[in-house]
Protein: BH3-interacting domain death agonist
Amino acid sequence: AYSARLGDCLVPGLWSPVPGPRPPAPAARLLASCRGCWVSNGSSLQDERITNLLVFGFLQNCSNYNFHKELEVLGRELPVPPAYLQEDHDDGLQTDGNRCSRFLDSEETDSESQEEIIQDIARQLAQIGDRMDHSIHPRVVNNLAMQFMNVNLSEEDRRKHLAAALEQVLQTYPKDMEREKTVLMLAMVLAKKVADHTPSLLRDVFRTTVNFINQNLLTYVRNLVRNEMD
Structure:
């Protein structure tokens, strides 16, 4: 049985390797350590939706950020449920007591429940992220932001630079949290810090972070949301 609840420190049996080509350096060590990256069927639209909501909710619930306007624009482009765009985080209740969703109208009830779970997970992860924020050296953020400013980089190159920055941070990061959760947290914290450094990069760093999570941590995120819904 899987165990991927938010508060767990260990996730026994969560990952099982699926054969596939190893990624190129410098990201090879990081990606190889997250064996869940080898997802045979790739990410579906539903998976992308979950990751979009998770990363957006994380950024929205972080403290002390300078990209409010950019985040609001991003939320309208995705789109995210209207409740995510409310500044007072009223748990998504409208005046009639119902939550509105633009996703999966045919499964409105399930969608609403899942959105609430994802928002709650994102809020808890943002609280952890605020405590991890100081552990990332400004030089790592500056270098990553400079890479994202290069308009000639492909999306694959951006993911490699993000993975390389994560590998650099992980080398000195305490190992009191399981690997997959640490990588997920640090990827989103790095996205927040790059956007804070240069707010105009928010859209690009958001997309790259979502793609990185879908490629490398999809199984973990799926089970995290599924187990919180049980």
